[in-house]
Amino acid sequence: EVQLQASGGGLVHPGGSLNLSCVAAGFTIGNDAMTWVRQAPGKDFEWVSSINSAGIRTYSETVKGRFTISRENAKNTLYLQMNSLKPEDTAVYHCQARGLRGQGTLVTVSS
Question: How far apart are CA 99 and CA 60, in angstroms?
Fold first, then answer.
């Protein structure tokens, strides 16, 4: 059974940093494209970043230069390092793979 579980969210001040993790089960993340999406309160899901099986990373324009996606195959874990956070980054962040969206983690950026 494919499972995805994100963690690492929390409350952070503007300009702060967080590192999100997504542990996968039921498949090997190194063989698949992995994606982070987010949903801000009252808004639709928004694509944030992806990494494909070749390790090529892509980012939305809203997070480029501030967020970094990576994976650790030995731990079957996907990460999202988020720096220079802004209030508009407030959202529930989810990882996605193989057509599945896992349980999200809430990131709140507020002073």
Answer: 20
